[in-house]
TrEMBL record:
This is Aminotransferase. It comes from Aureimonas ureilytica. InterPro entries: Aminotrans_V_dom, Cys_dSase-rel, PyrdxlP-dep_Trfase, PyrdxlP-dep_Trfase_major, PyrdxlP-dep_Trfase_small. It holds the Pfam family Aminotran_5. Keywords: Aminotransferase, Pyridoxal phosphate, Transferase. Residues 21-397 form the Aminotransferase class V domain.
Length: 405
């Protein structure tokens, strides 16, 4: 599948300016169609859902359509879609809703490669006697070893938490294999997919994760987020909304205060956009279009990632943090590196002058940075690209980086 790059870039008004955006893992640019949908909701159907009068019925239908869109996006059922303001908040909601199922002596496995969003909410259960076991990456390769996970599993393991793609390494983890290990031991799997969702098609049925969460504002949309949960797992969770919501009220019992309706309606634009990329590449509509759209996205991102990694690999002063392969199966187009003992801050501030937005630091994956001595260089330099970035933009970045390398 070939990406229609001119069409893709034309959908993002911000790209017509003088800045090149390569901090997309922090938040992508927003589609014009998303902004239009948000505006349309606020100006034409901004009433509370659930009433009998016509504008409320319209609002209710629009929110329902957002669940249908994300069910198509993730290959699940609309009733398995929970929405909220961010991945961080949704995982906190999930953690609270699992309180009744986690007993003293139970165990949760966490990784030191995850964003803190999929670590902090689970640590609170330690105070209740739940044991935390750490699945740590190799200090040289930064890889998670599946054999280590198997050795950590016990009859008391209730939950394994892992990222699908690291927001600092770019590494894609083998989620289906991890799910199989977790399930074989009687545990559930919670996947943070924030750094994966903008880059590859999601099929939660194939992955067999029990909970799978990502933020729409990393996927060309508004500040909104989505969580898939297997229907039976959602039903078993505690109600975290008002007392009169019983446990069968899924997904609403997990959406306290209700979701942001205009963001829900606006987010449909992100799904429609990826589907349109697929149809323009020759695929059909619906799920087929989404998969084809992401196939085109993946190839474009492979090309720009290869250009950057080839350059970084040619500099003896540079250490790429994570995999050096640009293969579609290995990594997404998020690349982090250090430059000897040079402060990553200095490198990034030099690039700022060229009107290219990249970033330095720990990116809230603070544990891997602290545990592997990367704080001495102010963390890493991170270049996080998406499909609308071009080879020409990568060449501009390379020219801006060269003086520091």
């Amino acid at each position: 599948m070939t990406l229609d790059l001119d069409f893709a870039r034309a959908q993002f008004p911000a790209l017509s300016g003088e800045w090149t955006f390569m901090d997309n893992a922090g938040g992508s640019q927003v589609l014009a169609r998303v902004a239009s949908r948000v505006s349309d909701y606020l100006l034409t159907s901004n009433v509370q859902t659930g009433a009998s009068y016509e504008p409320s019925r319209v609002s209710t239908a629009r929110v329902s359509q957002s669940r249908e869109a994300f069910a198509r996006f993730m290959n699940c059922e609309p009733g398995e879609i929970v929405e909220g303001p961010s991945t961080t908040i949704l995982i906190r909601f999930l953690s609270e809703a699992m309180t009744g199922r986690l007993q003293p002596g139970d165990e949760i496995i966490l990784t030191n490669t995850d964003h803190e969003a999929n670590i902090g909410p689970w640590l609170k259960h330690e105070a209740r006697g739940v044991k935390i076991r750490w699945w740590r990456c190799d200090p040289e390769t930064f890889e998670l070893d599946l054999e280590d996970l198997k050795n950590l599993m016990s009859e008391r393991t209730k939950l394994v938490c892992v990222t699908h793609a690291s927001n600092i390494l770019g590494t894609i983890n083998p989620i289906r294999e991890i799910a199989d290990i977790a399930h074989a031991g009687g545990a559930e799997l919670c996947v943070d997919a924030v750094a994966y969702a903008p880059h590859r098609a999601i099929d939660v049925k194939a992955l067999d994760a029990d909970y799978y969460i990502f933020s729409v504002y990393k996927v060309f949309g508004p500040h909104h987020a989505v969580m898939f949960g297997k229907r039976d797992k959602l039903l078993a969770l505690d109600n975290i909304y008002h007392y009169f919501f019983d446990k069968t009220r899924v997904p609403h019992k997990l959406e306290p205060g209700n979701i942001n309706y205009e963001c829900a309606w606006g987010s449909i634009g992100s799904v429609d956009y990826v589907e349109e990329l697929g149809t323009r590449a020759g695929a059909g509509e619906g799920r087929a279009g989404i998969e084809a759209g992401f196939a085109a996205i993946a190839e474009q991102e492979r090309a720009i990632t290869a250009r950057l990694l080839d350059f970084l690999g040619s500099r003896n002063s540079v250490r790429v943090i994570g995999r050096t392969s640009s293969a579609i199966a290995d990594r997404v187009s998020t690349v982090s590196f250090t430059v000897g003992d040079t402060s990553s801050r200095e490198v990034v501030e030099g690039v700022d002058k060229a009107k290219i937005g990249i970033r330095y630091g720990d990116f809230y994956a603070k544990r891997i940075v602290e545990e592997h001595g990367l704080t001495r260089t102010d963390g890493t330099v991170r270049v996080s690209m998406v499909h609308y970035n071009t080879l020409e933009e990568v060449d501009r970045l390379i020219a801006a980086l060269e003086p520091a390398l």
